[in-house]
Specification:
Layout (H helix, E strand, L loop, with lengths): L11 H11 L5 H4 L6 E5 L5 E5 L18 H4 L22 H12 L3 E10 L4 E15 L2 E10 L3 H30 L5 H32 L7 E4 H11 L1 H7 L2 E4 L7 E4 L1 H17 L6 E9 L2 E8 L5 H6 L15 H11 L4 E7 L3 E9 L7
Parallel strand pairs: 7-9
Antiparallel strand pairs: 1-2, 1-5, 3-4, 4-5, 6-8, 9-10, 10-12, 11-12
Helix pairs in contact: 5-6, 7-9, 9-11
Length: 379
């Protein structure tokens, strides 16, 4: 951030005095009686003095006891308690739309509108929320405040029914296309035509995979995804993924290989979801690689942990390292950033593994998923 966020806090008694001063003549409740978005009144220390509308707790349970807390703390931000000073002081706060809007509004004395991609604890795992943030500086009874307007733009619940209908219809259509191409490729066709049909079949298979990935992500966010228990062979899984993404690697001008020292083991988990998690790691690594570079996939045992990993030689910049698992964040432009987000959502929320990464100039970047599964012996 380019401003000094105050770390000191007022105690509850001091904030109660501020609340009473706010009520002297300014009809907040009249203006903010019933809203479909949240309004927080913040003091100079960025603590909440008051929240509107009166039923603000419907936006987040912690707003019942919001007085004296900071925005990220009541909205459940995963970074809000990463340091002693709280919301506004973690490394991630340098890129937070709420923190930046408040800081600029306080410094410049003008209304500021920004987007905030927030990660918070959900009922299953971390979930992504997108807010439209507007920070408006005001002065009242000799004190300065910030009116912080937070409008939830996520719309998950409103999209659930439409998504379900969409995925049902489009998957049926894509499956029908693939079936006809499979029948066509068996016929006695000229070699040049057969080559084109084979290519169309590959594209059709890729299309089906992309649709299934989006359906899985939607179900995971909505809490409707069901997890299977499959017997997974480590090298068979990685070999299948390497084969699946070989064409994509070729398009990127990169190579994709399974490490020669990858270990053989087995575990019980949902094979389809694990394939999607590792597949997104592979796709992300290939997109980050240049022509002539090689991406390696591997698996090994370590202290009764079973680890799958994907390595590429590139280095992630500071912002990417902090925000990589945030929904809709991407270094590749708008309407991206779901692949890395889904790694965390599926890998931890549903597969009960641990998803993370390391990245340095010396050692490159490696994403991994780790399972604690001592009950299934290595083969």
């Amino acid at each position: 951030m380019n401003y000094a966020a105050p770390s000191e806090r007022l105690d509850r008694g001091q904030i109660e005095v501020q609340r009473e001063k706010l009520k002297e003549g300014f009809p907040f409740k009249t203006f903010f009686y019933r809203l479909d978005f949240l309004v927080l009144v913040l003091n100079r220390q960025r603590q909440i003095v008051e929240s509107y509308p009166e039923d603000a707790a419907r936006f987040h349970d912690d707003l019942i006891e919001d007085i004296g807390l900071r925005p990220g703390e009541v909205l459940g931000c995963v970074h809000a308690r990463n340091c002693a000073e709280g919301c506004g002081w973690s490394a991630a706060c340098r890129y937070c739309g709420v923190a930046l809007a408040i800081g600029e509004a306080q410094e410049e004395g003008i209304p500021v509108k920004l987007r905030c991609l927030l990660r918070r604890k959900g009922s299953v795992s971390e979930e992504g929320v997108e807010y439209q943030v507007t920070a408006v500086p005001i002065s009242w009874n000799g004190d300065k405040y910030i009116l912080l307007f937070l409008e939830d733009r996520s719309d998950e619940k409103r999209r659930m029914v439409m998504e379900r209908l969409f995925f049902h219809d489009v998957l049926n259509t894509a499956a029908g296309l693939r079936m006809h191409l499979e029948l066509l490729v068996r016929k006695d066709l000229p070699e040049e035509v057969k080559a084109d049909v084979h290519k169309l079949l590959e594209i059709s298979s890729s299309l089906n995979g992309e649709i299934e990935d989006q359906k899985t992500l939607s179900g995971a966010e909505n809490g409707t995804l069901h997890v299977r228990k499959d017997f997974v062979h480590s090298l068979e899984l990685l070999s299948g993924i390497a084969h699946q993404y070989a064409g994509f690697a070729e398009e990127q001008g990169a190579a994709l290989e399974v490490r020669s020292f990858a270990e053989v083991f087995s575990l019980i988990t949902d094979a389809g979801l694990l394939r999607r998690v590792i597949g997104n790691m592979v796709k992300n690594a290939l997109e980050a690689s240049g022509p002539g570079e090689t991406v390696f996939v591997s698996c090994h045992n370590q202290s009764e942990k079973k680890i799958f990993s994907v390595w590429n030689p590139g280095l992630m910049d500071d912002e990417a390292r902090i925000r990589v698992f945030t929904r809709s964040y991407s270094t590749k432009g708008e309407n991206r950033g779901l692949g890395t987000y889904s790694m965390k959502l599926l890998g931890e929320g549903y597969l009960k593994g641990s998803v993370g990464f390391t990245s340095s100039e010396k050692d490159g970047t490696e994403f991994y998923i780790v399972f604690d599964d001592p009950s299934v012996p290595s083969l």
